[in-house]
Amino acid sequence: MKMIEYVRTFLCGCPVLKDGKMNIDFLGDTPVEYVIEPGVQPMEPVRRYADGGALWEYKFSFGSREAFGTQVRTNLANSGFYEEFAAWVREESDAGRLPPLGGGLSPQELRVQAAGFVYGANADTANYQIECSLIYYEGGKNR
């Protein structure tokens, strides 16, 4: 599996998600749909170890298309959803419940890098997004 698949599988288990489709690199026109998009990936590890192992960071965005408009209650619910999502990510990470990774990779931490925000809207719907990253360990060759 690819890193994005591990992240998608894990996030599909988030209890605050509404009934909605979880896409990769595509967000449909109608609410509620979710999307996971890989971010710009660092070419250097976060940290290198003497044994040749390293900590890496996998950056990604989680987003959704939500109902949107002049109703304060609707927009508050959208913002509240992203607060709940961020809290769930922190709780899961703190408890050590992280995406299981294959290929000898070991997850270390799931982080929320930036709070949820609107990045595109029309009169009826808006795209919301939250920036996240997964820190993982890749073992070295010099064991």
Annotate the secondary structure layout.
Blueprint: H1 3-11, E1 21-24, E2 33-38, E3 47-48, E4 54-67, H2 72-94, E5 105-121, E6 125-138
Parallel strand pairs: 1-2
Antiparallel strand pairs: 2-4, 3-4, 4-6, 5-6
How would you characterize the overall build of this protein?
The chain is an alpha+beta fold and 143 residues long. It is 22% helix and 40% strand. The protein has helices at residues 3-11, 72-94; strands spanning 21-24, 33-38, 47-48, 54-67, 105-121, 125-138. Strands 1, 2, 3, 4, 5 and 6 form a six-stranded mixed beta sheet that branches. A hairpin with a 3-residue loop joins strand 5 and strand 6. The chain is elongated and about 55 Å long. The two termini are 25 Å apart.
Compact description:
By secondary structure, the chain is α+β, with helices and mostly antiparallel strands. It contains two helices and six strands. Strands 1, 2, 3, 4, 5 and 6 form a six-stranded mixed β-sheet that branches.
Notable characteristics:
143 residues; alpha+beta; six-stranded mixed sheet; 2 helices; 40% strand; elongated
Measured as a percent range, the helix fraction is 10-25%
Outline type: elongated
Number of strands: 6
Order of helices and strands: HEEEEHEE
The largest β sheet comes out as: 6 strands, mixed
Strand share of the residues?
Answer: 35-45%
Please work out how many helical segments DSSP would assign.
2
The span between the termini is 25 Å
- The secondary structure category is alpha+beta
- In the predicted model, the low-confidence regions spanning at least 5 consecutive residues are none
Q: Average pLDDT across residues?
A: 92
